[in-house]
């Protein structure tokens, strides 16, 4: 089973959300549903539904450690990470399965 550490952003690329999942399509659907309906989560409240970055891991503990590491980074460093992987911050929602 693969685990993804992922970064979502909103339409204007002003807010980012970092998460982890073992089913990226299901998780993207959950974020999208929350952004339209309940807006209970951070991603839902700020409409972070556009996947712009991800890393794949075989081990859940490694993925969780990486997620925690990324969340501690300053925004500039997160932006640089995203830009090195996805220079135009293109939406990758339909490219990951």
Automatic annotation (TrEMBL):
The species this protein belongs to is: Leeuwenhoekiella blandensis (strain CECT 7118 / CCUG 51940 / KCTC 22103 / MED217)
Record lineage: Bacteria, Pseudomonadati, Bacteroidota, Flavobacteriia, Flavobacteriales
What does the sequence similarity comment in the record state about its family? Answer: Belongs to the UPF0213 family.
Q: What is this protein called?
A: GIY-YIG domain-containing protein
Which SUPFAM superfamilies does UniProt cross-reference here?
A: GIY-YIG endonuclease
List, alphabetically, the InterPro entries matched.
Answer: GIY-YIG_endonuc (IPR000305), GIY-YIG_endonuc_sf (IPR035901), UPF0213_domain (IPR050190)
Q: Which ranges carry the GIY-YIG domain?
A: 1-80
Cross-referenced Pfam families, in alphabetical order?
A: GIY-YIG (PF01541)
Q: What CDD domains is this protein classified in?
A: GIY-YIG_unchar_3
């Amino acid at each position: 089973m693969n685990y993804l550490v992922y970064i979502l952003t909103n339409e204007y690329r002003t807010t980012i959300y970092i998460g982890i999942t073992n089913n990226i399509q299901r998780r993207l659907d959950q974020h999208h549903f929350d952004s339209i309906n309940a807006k209970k989560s951070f991603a839902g409240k700020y409409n972070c539904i556009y996947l712009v970055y991800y890393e794949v891991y075989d081990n859940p503990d490694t993925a969780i450690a990486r997620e925690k590491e990324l969340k501690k980074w300053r925004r500039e460093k997160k932006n640089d990470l995203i830009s090195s992987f996805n220079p135009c911050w293109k939406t990758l929602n339909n490219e990951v399965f």
